[in-house]
Amino acid sequence: MEQKELHSLLEQVSSGVLSVDQAMLQLKLAPFEDLGFAKLDTHRAIRQGVAEVIYGAGKTPEQIRDIASAMIQRGQKLVLITRMTEEAAELVAAALPLKYHKIGHVGLVGKLPEPDGCGSIVVATGGTSDMPVAEEAALTAEALGNRVERLYDVGVAGLHRLLAHADELMRARVIIAIAGMEGALASVIGGLADCPVIAVPTSVGYGASFGGLSALLSMLNSCASGVSVVNIDNGFGAGYLASMINHLGGKA
Amino acid sequence: MEQKELHSLLEQVSSGVLSVDQAMLQLKLAPFEDLGFAKLDTHRAIRQGVAEVIYGAGKTPEQIRDIASAMIQRGQKLVLITRMTEEAAELVAAALPLKYHKIGHVGLVGKLPEPDGCGSIVVATGGTSDMPVAEEAALTAEALGNRVERLYDVGVAGLHRLLAHADELMRARVIIAIAGMEGALASVIGGLADCPVIAVPTSVGYGASFGGLSALLSMLNSCASGVSVVNIDNGFGAGYLASMINHLGGKA
Amino acid sequence: MEQKELHSLLEQVSSGVLSVDQAMLQLKLAPFEDLGFAKLDTHRAIRQGVAEVIYGAGKTPEQIRDIASAMIQRGQKLVLITRMTEEAAELVAAALPLKYHKIGHVGLVGKLPEPDGCGSIVVATGGTSDMPVAEEAALTAEALGNRVERLYDVGVAGLHRLLAHADELMRARVIIAIAGMEGALASVIGGLADCPVIAVPTSVGYGASFGGLSALLSMLNSCASGVSVVNIDNGFGAGYLASMINHLGGKA
Amino acid sequence: MEQKELHSLLEQVSSGVLSVDQAMLQLKLAPFEDLGFAKLDTHRAIRQGVAEVIYGAGKTPEQIRDIASAMIQRGQKLVLITRMTEEAAELVAAALPLKYHKIGHVGLVGKLPEPDGCGSIVVATGGTSDMPVAEEAALTAEALGNRVERLYDVGVAGLHRLLAHADELMRARVIIAIAGMEGALASVIGGLADCPVIAVPTSVGYGASFGGLSALLSMLNSCASGVSVVNIDNGFGAGYLASMINHLGGKA
Amino acid sequence: MEQKELHSLLEQVSSGVLSVDQAMLQLKLAPFEDLGFAKLDTHRAIRQGVAEVIYGAGKTPEQIRDIASAMIQRGQKLVLITRMTEEAAELVAAALPLKYHKIGHVGLVGKLPEPDGCGSIVVATGGTSDMPVAEEAALTAEALGNRVERLYDVGVAGLHRLLAHADELMRARVIIAIAGMEGALASVIGGLADCPVIAVPTSVGYGASFGGLSALLSMLNSCASGVSVVNIDNGFGAGYLASMINHLGGKA
Amino acid sequence: MEQKELHSLLEQVSSGVLSVDQAMLQLKLAPFEDLGFAKLDTHRAIRQGVAEVIYGAGKTPEQIRDIASAMIQRGQKLVLITRMTEEAAELVAAALPLKYHKIGHVGLVGKLPEPDGCGSIVVATGGTSDMPVAEEAALTAEALGNRVERLYDVGVAGLHRLLAHADELMRARVIIAIAGMEGALASVIGGLADCPVIAVPTSVGYGASFGGLSALLSMLNSCASGVSVVNIDNGFGAGYLASMINHLGGKA
Amino acid sequence: MEQKELHSLLEQVSSGVLSVDQAMLQLKLAPFEDLGFAKLDTHRAIRQGVAEVIYGAGKTPEQIRDIASAMIQRGQKLVLITRMTEEAAELVAAALPLKYHKIGHVGLVGKLPEPDGCGSIVVATGGTSDMPVAEEAALTAEALGNRVERLYDVGVAGLHRLLAHADELMRARVIIAIAGMEGALASVIGGLADCPVIAVPTSVGYGASFGGLSALLSMLNSCASGVSVVNIDNGFGAGYLASMINHLGGKA
Amino acid sequence: MEQKELHSLLEQVSSGVLSVDQAMLQLKLAPFEDLGFAKLDTHRAIRQGVAEVIYGAGKTPEQIRDIASAMIQRGQKLVLITRMTEEAAELVAAALPLKYHKIGHVGLVGKLPEPDGCGSIVVATGGTSDMPVAEEAALTAEALGNRVERLYDVGVAGLHRLLAHADELMRARVIIAIAGMEGALASVIGGLADCPVIAVPTSVGYGASFGGLSALLSMLNSCASGVSVVNIDNGFGAGYLASMINHLGGKA
Fold first, then answer.
1. How many CB atoms lie within 10 A of CB C41?
2. How far apart are alpha carbons A226 and A193 in whole angstroms?
3. What is the C-alpha to C-alpha distance for residues A226 and A246, in angstroms, rounded to an integer?
4. At residue E201, does pLDDT exceed 50?
5. Alpha carbons E175 and E190: distance in angstroms, whole number
6. What is the mean pLDDT of residues C151-160?
7. What is the full DSSP assignment across B73-120?
8. Do G1 and B35 touch (CB under 8 A)?
């Protein structure tokens, strides 16, 4: 509430146009409206008609089906369901036109939108075991309207595999680098590319990988600039952030 | 040397405009890696005329002065020196037109460029003790040609301080959220804003903050989407990445 | 046995009203520790007629049933069973009037008492996955005679949800803030409210949440004053302590 | 500004007792957040005339002196300065009537208030090396208007020392249990007393105490009910929370 | 073969009582290491006729049965089997006179020897959930010829339970203090008793007990003298060491 | 207070020999005496005329001198001061007949007693850098009346050095095995000797020794039976416990 | 691409022998060829006719069978499959001449080659539970053409078992030392032998072994020279490296 | 002692040639001689005339000088002193012909030997700050008779720097890869080269590098085969092991 609005309100009270209680109410509601919670709300809803997300972990198949149904009935064109079990997929598929991506444990109800982001997002993995996380990231980005290029199994132990794709890396607008074990992929890609690199450590590995801690620390300590990190196995978060960066443009 | 430049050079050779030896000379001046890894160099060199960076930690004042002098002599318009001690600043200032920013331990030789990024970068901190890291981030971003808004001491324990700046947060193109202790600032800002948030945990705190570990884990686990994390106290990395995101645009 | 009772007993012996052997008997019936440690016993027994607690983890359904039966037979009006499996609930329900709260894994034999605490206890959670811990806390507090208000899923990534309940937070006498992941809820509530906040980190999360460690460290480092922390997932402990604080009053 | 004050103000405007501009002035003097977040401010400001706190760590002696001077000039009756170095104390003492408590690194400008809390706060330590933290807690509580009883060096390795003070523990309204090393004091006191126990792990110890981690984990795992924990060495936080609990009463 | 036996054998050879070949035979029967490392063997073999130990974890029921049978056939009077599953117990019981102790997962083939140690070993636990570890310790000690007193569920949260047994603690020659959670029992007992205390942290607990780490650190940091620690859940190790200490005597 | 004492007391009250108030007093004092705190006290005081201990860390030279002086004046024949700085030693030596052992940072006021323990205590170290801890252990044991044999620098990387002293190890009644780095010494000695082995991890090392954590974990996981562990660098604790074990004998 | 090659290429363009596009292609391919990626490729393929490796973890039985079949059809003489389940072995055995080594979870399709390495590789373990890792190492080394000697269960708690094999240790060209728990074996062997020792920590153990962390740290801190470490349970890595060292020779 | 030697000894006793006591002595000494301690001794001494090593950390300048002098007097041609301070270097240089290498904190008394190893050892570092560790490794290897090639500052963030030296990497017989921060260098080199790679994590870095832990874990989890790891900052260990591997050859 700006000072002139406040002045005007007080004048209305003074002139009897507004009762004291009506003024109280407005003053109590004020901070919430003033702080632009409409915006807050809007910014969290992913652009209308594109995708609404259900985090499937810890929800029963029935709960997922019911939430997805409600979204579709509200006019949602695409519903993205992450961390979805096969069991849940079967149940949802009986009620809704679900496409289930088994490797990434991702379900999609509705049609993937055409890419409307500015450029392409490269999703690269160190090994094939990182694919579940990579698919979660890639499908999230696609569901949010991005063109995605997948470069899987280009880990640094066979550098030529990665270098053979130097062009894709050079052309990308955002790169998601996904790796477990020693997580060196993020640094090497960060050194090759000149765009933001979102690093996703994975829990792939054994022994001293300590459930992804090794890759996490490695990525946080990346000596390449332009690299930032999300939580272990957080493919969704990386896909969402990549999409956000890829859609930057209008604002200035 | 971009691929189209190379193509043009080869055509000049083919058409006889350029002799083989003249072409050789040009190719030799381009560093070895230009023959294929040219982008490596280009992407790492910050846009010519803007800023070259010296990481001051572990270098003697003399080394810093000599490197900076060499850069200036090569025609560099601005040299950014991070983690610079006062002692080093004194020595460099005797030889070069250095402006030393004491709080952020940052030295600048040359003039800050006009902002040429697309939007503004907000640098927010939880407390006043996070200011050294924040200034490192802010000055880095400014040296790289960005407009920076500083929101210091807006930690979540006094939420109204942060909410009073909701507008700046809403308008930002990238936000750098810097906090020690429990690092909750990143989540709260990530929930308020709809742009990428780069979280920087700081080593501010004592006891169970374990040198920044608490803030680091907190930020990695942020339940707000669009948040990614860099190393503890890594103000430079955050400023660099924010600038990279803020300058995205031409490529598609 | 209070000191004045002891004094009275000794006077009866002195005056011959009580024989030495009768006095011996009374002193022997009073547990040994009554002679100085009486309070130990009393303070641990929750106010007679309110609730006796069985920690269900690691006990067989049969053991739980037998202990609960014995308590009821001793005249206990309400028995609270925490960490109770559905299997145990079924077995106990066959023998006793058990009400089983599935989400919180809490069983109650007997009727919840009327609230007799001074004010209300707010139990707030960051997400819906924190509900099992929250229900353990809420039901514990209710079983101990407190009025409880539940504010679930008010995590800091959507601050408006929390602020919409600012009134409840302002009115509370004690708040239990329960959150996993980054655990920022405790700090934000601690900054909003002016009453003691008991923070409960939960093991909800994945990757770098390290089984609740992230939330635990975050809460311990809270920059808001008035916040203290109990063990990860310890809903019972928080409910018990909240009740203790809420019942403070008479003593001075 | 409490809601009833706001109501009264609006009524004065409505009835013409107060002009719109006079009301504007009052509302402007009240900080912005008074219009809705008034409580935020009030609850954080410790009751007027009692104590304002300066966290001395990381501030220069000059900064501390200037902040304290400003507070005193604003009519503050008592200023509490924690983590204050002797050097800072000397400088402040030259300008203000400072009483410096060397062991607790606490400075007080002004007179300690009379205790106005409901009961007494016991501050107990395991060893003499825990005294700095204990004094920070005790002086904080005293500055906030509480009666404090100090029980130092009553660690569990000589249980009789602790038991000799069973009476004080029984009579307390809140107990602050401070210990390093194995931190067992909190559990033992938690088992003896029937009031809230605030446990403060300290960094006292060596080797596997890992800077207070051992005591911290020990206290979090306390098998005694009614125990909660604050950060390692956080005497101020414990004193503040204890005062908050001790002053509970009016609200219901 | 003890040195004096060897000496005697050599004298017999020297005097002709024993031929060279007879001596050769005796020396060959003694394992190779008897010629110098005899003590290696002797000291590791628990005093003949007392007990031989099989560590059951990771062995199939068949393997356990076969090893135990072989021992019995070699004349072993008692075989102690630790970490034995019920399944293994059933299989072994079909072939050998096994007595299976379910709580401690300990099997005994043969008769427990009469106590021949110097004094009694007290095995104390903080809670009932520590009983599996305690029984492993107690039965190990009994199998090795010690008198054992069990004091279970005497945790420090109810100090009077422990103090009621002060006499047993005072009389003990060695005490094994077993506790999970905060592990304070070791310190409290260490402060009460004047004999060696072997502390066994257990993995009992949840959350910040981190699988026994909390109790382990607590016990290592015990401020009571005379306390040493074995591995988490290592009941056997504690029982073995306690027996070793209890049988000290002859040597000087 | 035994039951017969209680009976007698009640009879005295009954017969008027004792007034009610006198009885009250005795009953109030009772629990403390009853619980054998005399014994408690005695057991903590090391056998009269042998040694009283001052933990020097965190005490000023003046405090150490004054405490030591008081002890000597009370008739103490030997005062042991651990973790004593050279500076403190100089100050104390000016007032008292101090012998300062520089390597172990141990000061002794008075004459070392004749060994009265049953056997010898071997103090073995892995390297020469472990000597400060070893000397603290050895001098503690000597001050408490034990015969000590020092085997320094017998680490497992040169096994022959250790094996060359197999005899001493075989003859020992207790062995203190002190090592940093990988801490393998405890296991190897535990496998060679047939007496209790007290393992002391030291903070000697760098990198992944993590301040003694490596040696600590190694020793806790010792596959040799009869090994227990004290805190990192806790030479005093090991010496004290070794003496306690070595003096066992009379009790049974 | 050497300068004379570059010169020649440019001359071909100048003379029209090479088109601009053909030259572009060669220049783009150049760095990859120049950097010897042929070599890269070759060095990663294990010497032809010896062994190709499939890491079985995380692959379905069908995938393993198909990959192995393809290799055999390509003329591969031996296929080594690590971390292979029995279930996978059954499926593969139905299609290919598989020999499955149950303890090491290793499958071999084809015949083990004759040893062609320079010397023998000793694989030693601390206990029998380390055998799975040891067999993975031993079979890997054998599949790669090495002579392997197995010394199992020679842990340091019974040093004579290890010393009895001193000759094998002395004769070895490389030793793989495998141990869990305290991991002391690596240090002891490193001190005995004069050849490279590859230490493999295993996850064997419980409690404070923390999944192999204890052995890992112990081995990294080995005070014996010539010892290096691979990941916990990484038998394959140790076998591969040992083979690499054993085959060193021709190169100089 | 072989059986025939034993037989012969017994015959000498039987015939009186050897007294019982003389036989006892031989039998007691036997195992030590039998186990080849001559060999043990020899293998630990680095090949005569090459180098003897003094670990300078924790030794006084005087101690270092005296040990070095003694070695030289014993005929040692080269003495290598690691972790040597400048202060120590000055003192030693006054007495002996010392060459002090400031960066690596290495001192050499005597002349470096001619390389006698089979091939060259490459010492590569990620950054210039890793040079102290690298020089320790390189000088150690040179002192032990190896040809060393230094490739400094070839970290993975600028891959072309490393690839420009592919030839050196391909030609090396052993590579020492030294890096702090994320430690990716070891994996990338391990993927490029076909010889053993010894990875040395360094403590270079800040924040989440946790004193080298990040690089250590990264290197242990290397997905490249042929990589093993030594302790953080252990340049000496890497140089020693590299030399050992490089000198392998004669034995088979």
1. 14
2. 9
3. 15
4. yes
5. 9
6. 85
7. HTT-SEEEEES--HHHHHHHHTTS-EEEETTTTEEEEEPPPPP-SSSE
8. yes
Place of tokens 């060209």: G173
Lowest mean pLDDT of D146-160, F221-235, G142-156, H172-186, name the range: D146-160
CB H191 within 8 A of CB H156: no
Q: Which amino acid belongs to residue F233?
A: D
* Residues constituting chain G: 252
Here the tokens at position H199 are: 């990875």
Asked if D92 contacts D107 with a C-beta cutoff of 8 angstroms, the reply is yes
Q: In whole angstroms, give the CA distance from residue C232 to residue C222.
A: 16
- B13 vs G16: CB contact, 8 Å cut-off? no
Helix orientation angle between G86-93 and G61-73, rounded to the nearest 10 degrees: 40
Q: Enter the DSSP assignment of H178.
A: E
DSSP SS3 for C52: strand
Tell me the pLDDT tens digit for each residue of F37-91. 333 333 344 334 456 889 999 889 999 999 999 888 888 889 999 999 999 999 9
Residue H74, judged by CB atoms within 10 A of its CB (0-12, 13-18, 19+), counts as exposed
Closest in H192, H218, H220 to A184, CB measured: H218
Q: How many CB pairs under 8 A join C and E?
A: 34
H or E segment to which residue D150 belongs: strand D147-151
Residue G203: name the closest of F208, C212, E58 by CA. E58
Residue E129, classed as helix, strand or coil, is helix
Cα–Cα dist D101/D107, whole Å: 6
- B57 close to B30: Cβ distance less than 8 angstroms: no
d(C-alpha H19, C-alpha D139), whole Å: 82
Nearest of G217, F96, F90 to residue H231 by alpha carbon: G217
Q: Is E2 on the interface with H (CB under 8 A)?
A: no
Q: What's the predicted TM-score (pTM) here?
A: 0.86
Mean of the per-residue pLDDT values for chain F? Answer: 85
Which chain G residues are Cβ-neighbours of F184 within 8 angstroms?
156, 182-184, 187-188, 218
Q: Name the token pair of A68.
A: 């997805």
Determine contact, residues D207/E220, Cβ cutoff 8 Å: yes
d(CA C122, CA E235): 44
Sheet with C52-55, edge to edge strand ranges = C52-55, C78-82, C106-110, C98-101
**CA–CA distance, A82 with G150 (Å, rounded to integer):** 48
Q: How far is E38 from chain G (nearest CA, A)?
A: 10
What integer pLDDT is reported at residue H92 of this predicted model? 97
CB G246 within 8 A of CB G121: yes
Q: Which residue shows structure tokens 């090391």?
A: F46
Tokens representing residue H72 in the block: 């030289």
| Token pair listed for C185 | 């809820």
**CB proximity list for C17: less than 8 A, separation 6 or greater:** none
**Residues 96-135, chain F, touching G (beta carbon < 8 A):** 126-127
Mutate to test the interface with H, among G1, G144, G248 (most CBs of H within 10 A): G248
Name the closest residue on chain F to residue D131, using Cα atoms.
Answer: F58
Can you tell me the mean pLDDT for D153-171? 82
What is the four-CA torsion angle of B202, B208, B210, B216, rounded to 10 degrees?
A: -50
Across the interface, do G7 and B16 touch by the CB < 8 Å criterion? no
The whole-angstrom separation of Cα D52 and Cα D30 is 19
Which structure tokens are listed for G219? 């081995």
Closest alpha carbon to A36 in D33, B173, B122, B164: B164
Interchain CB contact of E48 with F (< 8 Å): no
Beta-ladder partners of F52: F79
Q: How far is A40 from chain D (nearest CA, A)?
A: 18
Chain C touching partners, 3 or more CB pairs below 8 A: A, B, D, E, F
Distance set, CA G189 to CA C205, F190, H88 (Å): 43, 17, 34
